[in-house]
Specification:
2 copies of one chain form a homodimer.
Chain A (H helix, E strand, L loop, with lengths): L13 E3 H6 L9 E7 L5 E7 L1 H10 L3 E4 L4 E4 L8 E8 L5 E8 L14 E4 L2 E4 L5
Parallel strand pairs in A: 2-7
Antiparallel strand pairs in A: 2-3, 4-5, 6-7, 8-9
Chain lengths: ~130, ~130
C-alpha cells in the first residue's frame, strides 16, 4: 500500500483517517518509522516505530505510544519514567512509510537521560559525544 | 551491533568514525533510517535510508547521499532535480539505528515539489493535505 494516489490532492483537501491508515506502507511487521520532534523548539528527539494500533491509541489518548521492536510490546512513552510525550500533531509522509509526531516532551526523551537520542555527532574523522544527561 | 557500550561516555569524549560505523545497528539490508532536518529552521524534511557507503560519501562530499530502497541504488539527492541537500551535521542515535542529518535544502525536499514530505496531517478523524507544492 502507499499514499501515492493521494499525493496530488490540493492543500486543504481531506481524506478519512481510516483511508490513510489502511494505505500506510508498513514493513513486514506492520510498522512505520515515527520521528518525535519537540513542537516549539524543533529539536528532533528520537526515532521509534508505530503500528496501526499504537497510532490510534496515540490519537485517542493524546500521549504517544510506540511499538517496541526490542521488547515486542506497546511502549507508552514515559509510563514508567514519567518522561511522557504529549501529542501536539501527527503527519504522515508522501509515501506513507514515516510519521512525524510533534510532541511536548517532559524531561529527557532518551533512555540515557539526555534530552534527545542523537548525541553521537561526527566531527571530521571522529564522533564526539555531543550532549550530557539532564 | 549497537552503540550501547558507548552510551555512558561523557560529553566531549571521542570515538573514531570507523568504530561507530562498525557498530551501527543496521537492518537485514545494511540500512539505517536517516532523518533530514533543515539546519536553521528545524523543519523535518524527509525520512530516507543510508548504508555505510552512502554515509561515507555524504561526509566526504558534503552532499547527502541515500540508498533508495525502491530503486535499489544510491540516491544522490538533487542530482537530477537540483534540489540538493548540503550537509551541515550528522549525528547517530543512542542505539545506532537512526541518523539525524542537518542539511541546507535547496528548494523542495519532496518529490511532489512540496518543501517537506509530511503533508498528510491528522485533524480529528480526518487527514488534511497541509501544504502545497512550492
Amino acid at each position: 500500500m502507499s499514499l501515492k494516489e493521494y499525493e496530488n490532492l490540493a492543500k486543504g483537501e481531506k481524506l478519512s483517517l481510516d483511508t490513510v491508515l489502511a494505505n500506510l506502507k508498513t514493513d513486514e511487521h506492520g510498522l512505520v518509522a515515527a520521528i518525535a520532534q519537540q513542537h516549539d523548539t524543533g529539536e528532533v528527539l528520537m526515532l521509534a516505530y508505530m503500528n496501526e494500533k499504537s497510532i490510534r491509541e496515540t490519537l485517542e489518548t493524546g500521549h504517544v505510544c510506540y511499538w517496541s521492536r526490542s521488547r515486542q510490546t506497546y511502549w507508552r512513552k514515559g509510563e514508567s519514567s514519567g518522561h511522557r510525550q504529549t501529542l501536539v500533531s501527527m503527519s504522515f509522509d508522501c509515501d506513507g512509510d514515516a510519521i512525524l509526531v510533534k510532541v511536548d516532551q517532559q524531561g529527557p526523551a532518551c533512555h540515557t537521560n539526555r534530552r534527545d537520542c542523537f548525541f553521537f555527532t561526527v566531527e571530521n574523522n571522529d564522533v564526539v559525544i555531543s550532549s550530557a544527561p539532564l
